[in-house]
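Thread: Newbie trying to understand structure tokens

Hi all, I'm a second-year student working on a class project, and my supervisor (Dr. K.) asked me to get a predicted structure for one chain before our next meeting. I've only ever worked with sequences, so writing a 3D structure as a token string is new to me. If someone could post the tokens and maybe explain what I'm looking at, I'd be very grateful. Here's the chain:
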Amino acid sequence: MTEYMMIYANISKSIYSNKSLSALDKLIYERITALTHKDGYCYATNEYIANIYGVKKNTVSASINKMVKQKLLKSKMVKEGTNNTKRYLYLSNDVYDKNRRGIAYSSDTPIPYINDHNNKINNKKNNKIIDSIYYKDEDGNEYWHGELIKSNPLTEEEQQEMDDLLKEFREGKEE
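---
Reply by user tm_fold:
Sure, no problem. This is what the structure looks like when written as tokens:
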């Protein structure tokens, strides 16, 4: 049985058409891009990437260094503990913006660019927006778009109309 791994990465046309990058460089870039989608950075080691593509760690290191020099990637070393340094790779802002836009970035497509992706950060942001549209204060007063929602009791006529509608609804269900 063959094992498959599905990855997802939006790669800008500028990466694929970059003549200074080899096919392996582009595959490595694609893998790093896929790994940055979750947390915004990739902490995969050269050994991990080398094992995926069946190459040596030095080859991966040279490829990543080439992309850092071309400002396609940003590399940050963080010391964690006494003898442990972890490398974090980030997509550069220019490339990252193009990647986020995906197909909508192309000037010849009618698809509009929408920045509200379904991820943890935007879900929190969108919940804050929803919370700011409707909220309750400490006293239990309800607000809609910052305006106090005023509650008026039903008049006798409105109450009778509601009762008639409910009665009509219940009779319709019994049939």
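A couple of things are worth pointing out once you decode it. The mean pLDDT is 76. The longest strand covers residues 73-79. Feel free to ask follow-ups in this thread.
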